[in-house]
Amino acid sequence: MTWSTYAGFAGMMAFLAMMPGPDTMVVLKNALTGGARGGGWACGGITVANFLQGTAAVLGLGAVITRYQPVFETVKWLGAAYLVFLGIQALRGAWRGDYEALDDVRRARASRSRRFREGFLSNITNPKVIVLYLSVLPQFLTPSSTFGDSLLLAYTVAALGVVWQVLLLLFVHRVRGWLQRRRVRRVMDGATGAALLGFGTALALEG
Fold first, then answer.
1. Contact (Cβ atoms closer than 8 angstroms) between residue 117 and residue 38
2. Separation between Cα atoms, residue 193 and residue 189, nearest integer Å
3. pLDDT above 90 (res 52)
4. Among 13, 28, 39, 45, which is least packed by CB within 10 angstroms?
5. What pLDDT score was predicted for residue 102?
6. 189 near 92, Cβ under 8 Å?
7. pLDDT higher than threshold 80 for residue 81
8. Residue 31 pLDDT more than 90?
9. Rounded to whole angstroms, how far apart are CA atoms 126 and 140?
């Protein structure tokens, strides 16, 4: 693999990483309720899941999942249901708007492991991730490409996702005072919840 090929791949993946998607919404949801640290744990879960999906794609397991319809459909419906569940949670927070009492409850319940698990599950149950690896990686590989080249491309996708999510967390931390305003929180929770609900519904309706 040449450096120009890798640079083209990295540029395209960086652009895709910045496109609003379920991962971004889950990180934002946790950052709003738990600050940069809470969002960071969700980001950690997403990252681990992303690396696992990339590894599965390179090892050929991803192709098995996408070709075996019952398995693919099961993963798809689990992912859709989980995104809808997260969306409803955010919408309930926006509807109630009682953030002082709600934040106390969330701090008591939302442990680090729960935020990590939320990020991990939202990514690992999203079949679009494994499909992305399987559809994009082969376009940048040649018959002479090595196993290491495949891993490099797969892990680049996951690493760029981390970079984007960290930048998002830094932004949220910088404007945290503004985001803590009740009206702003309600709008952000509503928008995040609606986006997650939309992603889940779209995933469920995909043929």
1. no
2. 6
3. yes
4. 13
5. 47
6. no
7. yes
8. no
9. 23
Here the contacts of 171-178 (C-beta below 8 Å, separation 24 or greater) are 172/28, 172/31, 172/32, 172/36, 172/39, 173/31, 173/35, 173/36, 176/35, 176/36
d(CA 42, CA 206): 26
What one-character-per-residue DSSP string does 74-134 give?
HHHHHHHHHHHHHHHHHHHHHHH--HHHHHHHHHHH--HHHHHHHHHHHHHT-HHHHHHHH
Residue 181 reports pLDDT greater than 80: no
Query: How far is the C-alpha of 171 from the C-alpha of 33, rounded, in Å?
Result: 15
Q: Which amino acid is at 148?
A: G
pLDDT higher than threshold 80 for residue 43: yes
**What is the separation, in whole angstroms, between the first and last Cα of the chain?**
35
Name the one residue in this structure whose structure tokens are 């599965």. Answer: 56
